[in-house]
Amino acid sequence: MISEDKQQQVIDYVLGEMSATDAASFEQELDHDAELQTFTREMFETLGRIGGGIEALSPPPSIPQRILRQEARKMVPFSFIPWAVAACLAIGCLVLATLWTESRKEIAKLEQRDLLSRIRIAELQSQVDAYAKTSAIVVWNPDQQNGVLQFERLPALPANQDYQMWVIDPKQPQPVSAGLVPKSTDQERRVAFWPTKPVGGTPKFAVSIEPAGGSSAPRGQIVLVGQYGE
Amino acid sequence: MRRVDEQEYNADLVKLAANGDQAAFGILYRRLAPALYGMAFRMMNDAKEAEDVLQEGFTYIWRKAKTYDPSRSSAHAWAVMIVRNKAIDKLRARQRGERLRDKVSSEAGLFAEQDDSSAQEPLSRERNAQVREALKQIAPEQRQAVELAFFSGLTHEEIAERLGAPLGTIKARIRRGLLRLRDLFQDGV
How far apart are CA A199 and CA A144, in angstroms? Predict the structure, then answer.
């Protein structure tokens, strides 16, 4: 049983109320006390729930790219090596670069082959007459848990309805939402999707018509369904 | 094929990001950023500053993914605390927490009833509703102390001063509030 004083110490630690010195000494204690670890983890999870419980907002989608570009720039520091040394090194570098380029080409080929062996393709079939002419193909990467849905001749919906994509994992009690199909007047379009929960096995993919904003489980008519073969 | 739960999936994405997997980092962002951006926006009360906080938080996640220890916390809680700490650094540095502090101590608080028709993922709406429900079930003074301690950037001493209560009382409210919330979350509210 963790004493109140110790509980207080944990709370100060997780909320960042401890000095750096006290935090370092607390972490040493934490490494050797399983009960303290459990309580600390519970407090982190409780705070995680509180922080994650505020209404979500659409974040700027470009942030990951910005971060990766910024980090890539940092990986290539400006060189102050004198020209003379640089000239000597250049010859060696040229040889290495040639070898490296060749290796990269080989690696890229292997990676491409590996990626292609992992992706899955499914054609969705219409479930209602109005969608008989609609063509929909899913390209799914089970390892990365994302995919692309390409539509042709997808009928437009009224403003109070949205198309919602679903991934149906037989091991899960209900279909997993993969987001809404953005409204567009184009009958042909390509939509990237990510299920909100991880899915396994050989999932089915479906598109339903839901009230605008989507539903937590399919409530409206399912208009397209399909599954890839193993 | 591997079948994992949501927490393990997030932890796997952090692990992949630690090895330089940019696609995994992108997916992690798509999964966590909406809630974290919502939190940052409520803390900063300014969209541009919230965006800066989110970017700083995810930069830290990318750089420090190797230090993430799944035995200490879930990846979600780890990310929440990173972004929360970035927001608090900014609030403290810029001394711009006043509007939020007023807002937190107001009756409505940060977890006022939300319009469920808003464009959130259905799962996220459900989680928010659970947190609101849990917060309703703890004593109002505990809820106020927990919200101020988590979101405002005020130290516990500053909270005590602001609420005109002894420091020990404030610390006890925060502790009791968090313990009760832990139990409620564990019971699925």
Answer: 11
Can you read off the two tokens belonging to residue B181?
């919330």
Residue that is last in its domain, among A117, A133, A165: A117
Q: Is there a contact between A46 and B171 if contact means CB atoms under 8 Å apart?
A: no
User: With an 8 Å Cβ cutoff, is A56 touching chain B?
Assistant: yes
Q: Write the pLDDT tens digit of every residue in A22-73.
A: 999 999 999 899 999 999 999 999 999 999 888 888 899 899 999 999 888 8
Q: Can you give the CATH number for the domain in which B117 is found? A: 1.10.10.10
- Whether residue A205 sits in one domain with residue A177: yes
Query: Nearest by CB to A46, which of B22, B24, B181?
Result: B181
Which pTM value belongs to this model? Answer: 0.61
User: Tens of pLDDT along A77-116?
Assistant: 555 556 677 776 777 778 777 777 776 777 677 666 666 6
State the total domains in chain A: 3
Say if residue A112 is in the same domain as residue A203.
no
Q: How many beta carbons lie within 10 A of that of residue A27, not counting itself? A: 13
Judge whether A155 and A190 are in contact, CB under 8 Å. Answer: no
**Quick check: B43 and B91 in contact, CB under 8 A?**
yes
Contacts of A73 in chain B (CB under 8 A): none
The domain in which residue A89 lies consists of: 77-117
ipTM of the complex: 0.84
Which residues of chain B neighbour A43 with C-beta distances below 8 Å?
A: 178, 182
Pair B72, B112 in one domain: no
